[in-house]
């Protein structure tokens, strides 16, 4: 099989917050269509890692390439940063919907503003995406009128409206009541099945096992181990991975 080009490539990325060395020589490549789940204890650097991938955090050494756009250390990325932000969708733990906009307007805003779509085109796409996450009937409501699970599905539709090449998820179900976790994971599972490239930080180990092509374990800013989910969960090689898994599984 011909080698495919990775869509994401991190090469010896180092990130400090003052004295704190948060990412240590991170080397990571992600292939188009791959679903990569990142696991690790709180404070290990998972959020920082994925925030670096779409330029929400600066880093001090190494480089990051996303779909041919190169991010450079210390914020010297220039136009690549804007291109990456329009190509990479992100879903956060705290939905981050615009509270003063209806569901429909949340989804149409960026395609109209950033991509220059007409309102008619943006609206048509928005309804298609809202239907896909089973929430089109809520299009005229405001975020505060929706449950957490519904808000997170709107956030997913909003990200997809920009036709991203890559989707990043930072603990998308951690702020949800238990009964709403399933509906969000279902929508993500569907997206994975359709071939979307996804990097997902989650504590939902069952979901990770089922959906991930690869699980990456990060501890104190280092990638300690990465493998196919069954391998990583059933026979972790490193003591640090074993210790983490024994606490969460
Ligand atoms: P995780 O997502 O795995 O819980 P984070 O990436 O959020 O970890 O944080 C990694 C480390 O960086 C933690 O020690 C955290 O306290 C620290 N950190 C995160 N964001 C900042 C910030 N903006 N300023 C200073 N320290 C930060
Ligand atoms: Mg985090």
TrEMBL record:
Predominant cellular place of this UniProt entry's protein: membrane
Compartment(s) where it occurs, according to its Swiss-Prot or TrEMBL record: Cell inner membrane
Membrane topology: Peripheral membrane protein
Record carries keyword Nucleus: no
Transmembrane segments: none
Pfam families noted in UniProt: ABC_tran (PF00005)
PROSITE patterns listed in its UniProt record: ABC_TRANSPORTER_1, ABC_TRANSPORTER_2
One CC-aspect GO term: plasma membrane
GO MF annotations in UniProt: ABC-type amino acid transporter activity; ATP binding; ATP hydrolysis activity
Top-level taxon: Bacteria
Boundaries of every ABC transporter domain copy: 8-245
Entry keyword NAD: no
Keywords, in A-Z order: Amino-acid transport, ATP-binding, Cell membrane, Membrane, Nucleotide-binding, Transport
Assigned protein family: Belongs to the ABC transporter superfamily.
The protein's name in its UniProt record: Amino acid ABC transporter ATP-binding protein
């Amino acid at each position: 099989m011909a080698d495919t080009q990775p869509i994401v490539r991190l090469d010896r990325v180092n990130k400090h917050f003052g004295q704190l060395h948060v990412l240590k020589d991170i080397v990571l490549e992600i292939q188009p269509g791959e679903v990569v789940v990142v696991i690790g204890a709180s404070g290990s650097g998972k959020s920082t890692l994925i925030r670096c991938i779409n330029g929400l955090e600066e880093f001090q050494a190494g480089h990051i390439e996303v779909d041919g756009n190169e991010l450079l250390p210390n914020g010297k990325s220039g136009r690549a940063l804007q291109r990456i932000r329009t190509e990479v969708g992100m879903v956060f733990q705290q939905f981050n919907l615009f509270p003063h906009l209806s569901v429909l307007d949340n989804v149409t805003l960026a395609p109209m503003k950033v991509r220059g779509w007409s309102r008619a085109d943006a609206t048509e796409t928005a309804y298609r995406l809202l239907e896909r996450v089973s929430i089109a009937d809520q299009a005229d409501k405001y975020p505060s009128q929706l449950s957490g699970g519904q808000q997170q599905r709107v956030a997913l539709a909003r990200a997809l409206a920009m036709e991203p090449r890559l989707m990043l998820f930072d603990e998308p179900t951690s702020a949800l009541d238990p009964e709403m976790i399933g509906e969000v994971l279902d929508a993500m599972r569907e997206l994975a099945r359709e071939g979307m490239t996804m990097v997902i930080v989650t504590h939902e180990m069952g979901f990770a096992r089922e959906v991930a092509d690869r699980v990456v374990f990060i501890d104190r800013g280092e990638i300690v181990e990465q493998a196919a989910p069954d391998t990583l969960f059933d026979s972790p090689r490193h003591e640090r991975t074993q210790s983490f898994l024994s606490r969460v599984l």
